[in-house]
Design brief:
The protein has about 120 residues and is α+β, with helices and mostly antiparallel strands. About 35% of the residues lie in helices and about 10% in strands.
Length: about 120
């Protein structure tokens, strides 16, 4: 449970006179520093893609790089969420159930060992 929820609970309990003091007030809050996201550079991508031998893995990585789709969102894709005519992926209820986006699909040439 997040500390703010506990504080709110204690404030409620104090107002209703269920508790005599706010014990949580003595707890020191620790500020968590959010780590900045790191992204692959163009040079790293140029090294990564040719190193992928399996064509399906190659397509997955290319799609993830081009759409910025999260791994969880990729796993939850279905035929109904990919529109090849409009060339877009429809993401429903992404991180925190806040995301409802249409992400354009960019096409790249397949690796040398294609699916066929």
């Amino acid at each position: 449970m997040k500390i703010l929820r506990i504080i709110s609970l204690y404030n409620y309990l104090l107002r209703k006179k269920i508790v005599q003091k706010n014990s949580i007030a003595m707890v020191n809050r620790i500020k968590v520093i959010k780590k900045e996201r790191t992204h692959l550079t163009k040079d790293e991508i140029d090294i990564l893609l040719p190193a992928i031998d399996h064509p399906i893995v190659h397509y997955v990585v290319v799609m993830m790089l081009n759409t910025s789709i999260r791994i969880r969102e990729y796993i939850e894709l279905s035929l109904q969420t990919v529109d090849l005519v409009e060339k877009e992926v429809h993401i429903i209820e992404g991180k925190g159930c806040k995301r409802n986006a249409k992400i354009p699909i960019k096409y790249h040439s397949p690796p040398t060992n294609s699916l066929c």
